[in-house]
Amino acid sequence: MLQEAQSIIAQGVPVNTDFDLGGLLARRGAERYALHAKHLNPQLHRMLHTIGFDKTYTHAAGAYFWDEEGNDYLDMLAGFGVFALGRHHPVIRRALHDVLDLDLADLTQFDAPPLAGILAERLLAKTPHLDRAYFCNSGTEAVEAALKFARRATGRSRIIYCGHAFHGLTVGSLSVNGEEEFRKGFDPLLPDTAIELGDLDALERELARGDVAAFLVEPIQGKGVWASPPGFLAAAQALLRKHKALLICDEVQTGVGRTGDFFAYYHDGVEPDIVTVAKALSGGYIPVGAMLSKDWIFGKVYSSMDKVLVHDSTFGSNAQAMAAGLATLHVIEQEHVVTQARRTGDLLHARLAALVDRYEMLAEIRGRGLMIGIQFGRPESLKLKMGWAALQAARVGLFAQMVVAGLFHRHRILTQVSGDHLEVIKLIPPLTITEVEVNRFVDAFVDVMDDAHRGSGLMWDFGRTLMKQAASR
Ligand SMILES: Cc1ncc(COP(=O)(O)O)c(C=O)c1O
């Protein structure tokens, strides 16, 4: 029996030639929107069709992807931030081929996979005051782990979070989501408490009740791109320490170089007790998440041998995600990606900020590194006031959507409105973009804003379509 098995392995497992992925895509790729309409989120294709984003893309590289007519699109969204190194980075790609070719005995669940150990070591080197890592498969899972660990470690239940916060959409993470739009209809959620980002008095009031396990905060909020006010996180940490509660920094979006530091919290001079990471960590190829924390916190959760699986995830330390994570950290160091992100981010920020005085509907540019928020605002001139007011009355956020559509249809640049009811566009491109992409974006933005400030024309026609759509919801 054993000999037979060994000989099959020696000859190689027969390849099932019936399965042909490329052929399948070639045969059925054209059905993509129909398949989604029938079997997946029923609103996705409706939304894409309404805004004219229902394209067929064929391939991608770096900060670009291409449609079936061969047109290139500049990606200023990076798959919601996962493609920090652009798409199909050769080093990550090779690492993934290698990990498959190694035929590892992965996920035995009863050994110590070395790649997870090495990735934990490398990641913790970026947070020297933290000692241990827990790996999972997504940002929301990393946040769920943080919430559970904070509760178990402190013996308290309540989490304080911020208005407009976004930490993921599973029930625990949803309970600390600062937007009613997301929470509505999913009650009852956990009885956590929101404060406004920057409100130290509110934080202290809540802490004084003695039942707070932790304060959970994004150093720069993804929805709206709002940074913690200077000094706020440091003062919050001092209060938390006084009241024996924990500071959790959610770096799922801001981490891995996005803001021009490896972690955004460096900028605030704090030492969070827990840090959550995901998105860019695997270079966008493989779902991944990580929660980094102190030894004593892990000690409370994994308090005895029979608690070894008290918090766990089947795929958590899988070799592909770990290999992609290691390759990502390698590239980030070798190619000085964080420094580059800071420089390119500063350039893009400065070029956009220089336009604020030129356009009355451009209110502010904010953010750090390559996480940039473009805030639009109410115009003063009579010519524009009415159009703006009509859009606002239909739904706040439609002007930003008009600009997103203009960038896409006229210049093939992908961006996104930074959250429901916000007149903000968020730019989170690959960290590897250069001056070429900065120029393309700024030139396109100028063209679209020039058009928007004419107060009539195609863009405003599209605005009227959006208003009708908003009215018919
Ligand atoms: C700050 C933050 N935390 C958590 C999440 C959730 O991550 P995921 O979508 O991987 O669950 C996100 C996603 O955008 C995020 O921006």
Describe it for me?
- The chain is of the alpha/beta class.
- The protein is 43% helix and 15% strand.
- It has 19 helices and 17 strands.
- It has helices at 2-11, 21-28, 32-39, 42-50, 78-81, 90-101, 114-124, 139-154, 171-174, 180-183, 200-207, 232-242, 295-301, 319-334, 337-353, 382-394, 398-411, 435-452, 458-471; strands at residues 57-61, 64-67, 72-75, 132-136, 158-162, 193-195, 212-217, 220-221, 226-227, 246-250, 274-277, 289-293, 362-368, 371-376, 413-414, 416-417, 424-427.
- The chain has a seven-stranded mixed β-sheet with strand order 4-12-11-10-7-5-6, with helices on both faces. Strands 1-2-3-15 form a four-stranded mixed β-sheet.
- Helix 8 crosses helix 13 (295-301), helix 15 (337-353) runs parallel beside helix 18 and helix 17 (398-411) crosses helix 18.
- The longest helix is centred in the last third of the chain and has 18 residues, at 435-452.
- Pyridoxal-5'-phosphate binds next to helix 8.
Distance between the termini: 64 Å
User: Helix coverage percent of residues?
Assistant: 40-55%
Please state the structural category: alpha/beta
The hetero compounds bound to this protein are: pyridoxal-5'-phosphate
Query: Globular, elongated, flat, extended or rod-shaped: what is the shape?
Result: globular
